[in-house]
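Researcher: We plan to redesign the surface later, but first we want a full-length starting point. Tokens attached.
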């Protein structure tokens, strides 16, 4: 039998409202006979709603969604008289099918009223004949089934022929519609948060709940961690779609976490198993640290014996035990310490880094005012990630971490010498960061109090100690943690559905900027190896067990923070390079941090860095200044561009650019900027045959909030901008919610790249996101209006939520932000209001985010190494810098966990020069997830 095509008024879903529970349940049963499958149900005091899906077995046909809502306030429709001609009445849906005769047979076998009409072709040939069957559901909604071809039907996909040859002649009527709607056991997936709370846990809960519901599963939340499993009852609650509303911007864990001694013993795990089986739950997502995940895997390994014991004690029946014979466990790592192996980053770590940097930035101003030293203690019992990243991001003078203790017995003398060198150069403040698990090479603890006393007694500094404590866990999650936790939560549900008995429990992580699944217990075991390596003084092994960048970044911190070898009054040696540093393009968070790191690393390597002010116009005017170690002090926390920046290109006057570079004897060049810096590199590369001054190594450090530079997954400034947009949208959403039924259309920057719109939309839970890659058309606006009408129609009276739509500034020339808002307001028919918010240059942010500071430092140090690698040294004449090698002009890029360099010429094939962005983007999958979690089935 040929497949049936379903088209509901050419929209993706239909909403029907039942005024009574009897009609609600009768309508669900009625549509189930047509092949619709119930995929999720939500209940509240005022309403109950069931989503149904008509699955198509053909690749050319989209599945069709239907929502049946019970609302006591709904209007009851008048009965449809069988004596009337139903063709004169409005229908709620037209269903096009190739099996009309078989469907009529089905209708005739059921106590359903229907009318059939045939329409002959206009030319009488019979080729255009079609028929239509009119019927109505229990709520008296009229539907039309017809074999008339749908003029709006999408063309068949390339793989459609695989279905055209199916032999289904023996299938009963409607079987082609219901083939995919098989009756399988509805999965019940529970999530719990355990151990120390971490920002982003709520985003993970939201991701799991909504992904589970979308995949046709029931979602449950276990409150108070493992204690909730042991206690059962009201501690295990079924979750609806709107139960996780507002979770994204909330810190900690709404569902609670607690230490549970009972679960550590078998009797406690017996109670937990009994409670799960009684709720029908056979899949558990655990978000916590290594201890929580170890307990979860132990629970899974004991599951068969636990059920067997429960049957023997008559706590469960043998049928229940057989039905839930297997327990699926999936781990999400929620840990502010970032101490789990097999993942590059854990949920909560970046937000914790935000809190630390905010605190140290605040401390820095008072420390500088009084010329004080501050010893700051941060969390991290066996992992120094927080201390290391905070040290880089705040420009600390010294750090102590457990994986890399200070070497030698005289490390106190070395530290004091380093800090004295900083003071001799003119620094008024001293910041020392101590990880709570810091030790020396003999495994003796290094405490904050010891360091405070050392600085006071040895260097006679006015020293204060600050233990940040639990302030590090607090506050709302940053954009990175929201998106990480959301994506991992969705992946956890997919891992549950893909799991099979005998397969090890997976842990969801992130490696090389990709969401991954790894063996949970192998990851836990590797994590334990770090502490063991430290215990046996194998510090090299401990460093290797951390993520790939950890070791490199520690060396980079040491390279830029040392000042004992800096002698700025001495003449440059014969191997010194004269390095020009210029900002090009719009300001971006992290530009100053990159210049600072480049200057200090260059100085420590014996080179002479020059700052070029005001971009290429400043270069042409000869605005060069030699930058010394203290000239860039404090720049790491400064937003904007201290050197000054603009979008002008060297093509304004290539001859003058060449002249000034020769005049100041610049031997290599670092360009920190956006797409304009990339095109500037191209122009100078193409002019090498004419201007020998350009025959030197150049490196472009990408810095633009649009993140549209080819050759890198992240540019400096994009994370700062995402957090600025997120903060603004959180405030806007709060206002919209307070005003009840209001939609804000928020315009964001990004040029022709939708990166900011997509990633901020996911971070704030936007209802819809418009990006240049997809554009805006009337059909899309109609879908959005229908969706908004549906969502506001479902909101309980007086409890309507504010909603946000993100629009990229270049999404459409026709449908501007104001026009989109006006259309939404007009079509809302007073059901909801609409306002606009054009964020403008506030998106460039204030102080750079910690991630942008860390990335800037990493880029800059690697850039200096890149320049040195293209220099030929001569024992007599010093460095030779003349080169025409295309690889000597390159873009520095973050690819996964590594920094790579790709020549500007090689990147041309991967660049859309017209739209000023890379051809391939890695972040479009995030948009699909955003649509999924905004319940936009019509956009999937």
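Model: Full-length starting sequence:
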């Amino acid at each position: 039998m040929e497949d049936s095509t379903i088209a509901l008024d050419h929209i993706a879903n239909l909403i029907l409202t039942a005024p009574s529970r009897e009609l609600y349940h009768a309508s669900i049963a009625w549509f189930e006979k047509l092949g619709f499958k119930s995929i999720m149900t939500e209940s509240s005091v005022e309403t109950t709603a069931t989503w149904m899906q008509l699955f198509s077995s053909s690749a050319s046909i989209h599945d069709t969604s239907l929502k049946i809502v019970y609302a006591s306030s709904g209007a009851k429709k008048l009965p449809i008289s069988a004596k009337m001609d139903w063709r004169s009445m409005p229908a709620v849906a037209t269903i096009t099918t190739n099996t009309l005769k078989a469907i009529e047979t089905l209708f005739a076998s059921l106590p359903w009223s229907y009318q059939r009409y045939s329409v002959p072709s206009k030319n009488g040939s019979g080729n255009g004949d079609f028929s239509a069957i009119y019927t109505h559901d229990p709520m008296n909604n009229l539907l039309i089934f017809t074999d008339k071809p749908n003029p709006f039907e999408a063309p068949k996909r390339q793989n459609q022929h695989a279905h055209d040859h199916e032999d289904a002649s023996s299938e009963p009527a409607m079987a082609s519609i219901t083939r995919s709607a098989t009756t399988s056991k509805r999965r019940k997936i529970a999530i719990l948060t355990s151990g120390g709370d971490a920002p982003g846990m709520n985003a993970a809960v939201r991701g799991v709940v909504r992904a589970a519901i979308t995949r046709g599963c029931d979602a449950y939340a276990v409150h108070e961690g493992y204690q909730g499993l042991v206690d059962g009852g009201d501690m295990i609650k079924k979750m609806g779609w709107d139960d996780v509303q507002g979770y994204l911007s909330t810190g900690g864990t709404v569902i609670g976490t607690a230490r549970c001694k009972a679960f550590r013993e078998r009797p406690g795990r017996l109670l937990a198993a009994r409670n799960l089986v009684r709720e029908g739950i056979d899949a558990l997502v655990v978000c916590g640290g290594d201890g929580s995940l170890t307990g979860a895997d132990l629970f899974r390994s004991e599951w068969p014996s636990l059920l067997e014991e429960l049957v023997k004690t008559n706590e469960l029946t043998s049928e229940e035990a057989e039905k839930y014979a297997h327990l699926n466990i999936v781990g999400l790592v929620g840990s502010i310490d970032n101490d789990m192996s097999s993942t590059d980053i854990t949920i909560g770590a970046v937000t914790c880094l935000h809190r630390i940097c905010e605190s140290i930035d605040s401390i820095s101003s008072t420390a500088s005012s009084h010329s004080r030293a501050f010893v700051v203690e941060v969390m991290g019992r066996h992992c120094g990630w927080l201390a290391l990243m905070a040290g880089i991001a705040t420009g600390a003078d010294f750090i102590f971490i457990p994986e890399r203790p200070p070497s030698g017995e005289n490390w106190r003398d070395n530290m004091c010498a380093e800090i004295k060198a900083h003071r001799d150069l003119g620094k008024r403040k001293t910041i020392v960061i101590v990880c709570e698990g810091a030790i020396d090479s003999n495994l003796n603890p290094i405490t904050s109090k010891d360091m405070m006393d050392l600085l006071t007694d040895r260097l006679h500094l006015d020293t204060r100690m600050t233990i940040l404590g639990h302030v590090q866990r607090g506050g709302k999650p940053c954009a990175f943690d929201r998106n990480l936790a959301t994506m991992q939560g969705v992946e956890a549900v997919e891992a549950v559905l893909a799991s099979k008995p005998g397969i090890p429990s997976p842990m969801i992580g992130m490696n090389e900027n990709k969401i991954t699944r790894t063996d949970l217990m192998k990851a836990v075991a590797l994590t334990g190896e770090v502490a063991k390596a430290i215990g046996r003084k194998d510090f090299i092994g401990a460093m290797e067990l951390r993520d790939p960048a950890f070791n490199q970044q520690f060396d980079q911190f040491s390279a830029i923070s040392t000042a004992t070898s800096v002698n700025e009054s001495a003449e440059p040696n014969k191997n010194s390079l004269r390095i020009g540093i210029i900002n090009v393009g719009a300001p971006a968070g992290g530009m100053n941090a990159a210049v600072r790191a480049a200057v200090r690393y260059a100085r420590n390597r014996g080179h002479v860095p020059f700052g070029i002010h005001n971009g290429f116009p400043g270069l042409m005017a000869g605005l060069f200044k030699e930058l010394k170690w203290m000239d860039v002090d404090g720049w790491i926390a400064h937003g904007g561009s201290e050197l000054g920046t603009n979008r002008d290109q060297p093509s304004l006057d290539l001859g003058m650019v060449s002249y000034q570079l020769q005049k100041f004897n610049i031997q290599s060049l670092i360009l920190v900027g956006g797409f304009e810096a990339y095109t500037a590199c191209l122009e100078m590369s193409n002019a090498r045959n004419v201007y020998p001054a350009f025959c030197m190594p150049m490196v472009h450090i990408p810095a633009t909030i649009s993140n549209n530079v080819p050759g890198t997954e992240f540019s400096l400034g994009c994370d700062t901008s995402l957090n600025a947009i997120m903060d603004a949208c959180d405030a806007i959403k709060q206002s919209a919610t307070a005003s009840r039924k209001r939609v804000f259309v928020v315009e964001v920057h990004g040029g022709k790249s939708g990166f900011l719109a997509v990633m901020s939309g996911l971070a704030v839970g936007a209802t819809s996101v418009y990006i240049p890659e997809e554009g805006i058309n009337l059909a899309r606006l109609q879908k959005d209006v229908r969706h908004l009408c549906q969502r506001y129609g479902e909101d309980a009276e007086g409890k309507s939520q504010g909603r946000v739509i993100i629009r990229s500034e270049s999404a459409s020339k026709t449908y501007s932000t104001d026009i989109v808002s006006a259309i939404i307001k007009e079509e809302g028919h007073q059901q909801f209001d609409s306002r606009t918010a054009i964020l403008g240059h506030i998106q460039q942010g204030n102080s750079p985010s910690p991630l942008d500071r860390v990335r800037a430092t990493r880029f800059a140090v690697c850039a200096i190494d890149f320049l040195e690698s293209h220099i030929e040294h001569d024992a007599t004449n010093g460095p030779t810098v003349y080169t025409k090698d295309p690889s000597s002009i390159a873009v520095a890029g973050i690819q996964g966990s590594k920094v790579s360099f790709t020549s500007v010429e090689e990147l041309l094939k991967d660049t859309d020069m017209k739209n000023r962005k890379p051809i391939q983007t890695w972040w479009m999958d995030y948009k699909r997830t955003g649509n999924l979690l905004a319940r936009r089935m019509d956009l999937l």
